[in-house]
Protein kinase domain-containing protein (Coprinellus micaceus), 207 residues
Amino acid sequence: MKSTSSGGAVFVRNRLNRPCTGLPPLPSLLVALIPLERFEALLLPNGDELVIEFPSNSWRLPFNLALPLPDAFHRSRTAQTFVFSLPNIVVKVYDDVKPYAHERAFYEKWSSALGSAVPTVHAHGRRIDDSKPFLVFSNEGGRITELTEEERAVVRRSVLDVIHEEGWHHHDLAARNVLRKPSGGLCLIDFGMASKCERQGCDGFWE
């Protein structure tokens, strides 16, 4: 995992991707109050422009939202993940549409039932250069390197028992996919392999 210090303020740019003349940095409180899906796109520090998809009958601001340097960056076999504290979000850009489809489908079905036991999805869309899909999640806390049996039981009761009742499985249970919230609670993430099990032998075993 590569980490960088967060820096720079969150600010907006116009549709031509140029800084808005005379417009000061957008206050962090205002960023927290404006839903991300109201912006036209997110601009990552590396220059990537992520166009946010939204219902055609919804209003949106005529601005892009430029993000500061991430607090952390994770690269996996299937995605690039940017972790921010201002605003408090996680941006996940997928290299393959399949894990994106799995993850999005999982949240569309289960987010209401699971509540704070999983992150909130704020927005989705495509990267403008190559049309790779992305999701924007709430940043729920820091990654865990090791789980106790009691902590696994908490995740089982809050998430796994609920989805297993309808035959859904995470398929990638590991400590690295659990976050510890500032409050001390636990949050299960990374549902890129999650699906309703169509075969024999599905289980809820941890790595």
Remarks:
- The chain has three helices and 15 strands.
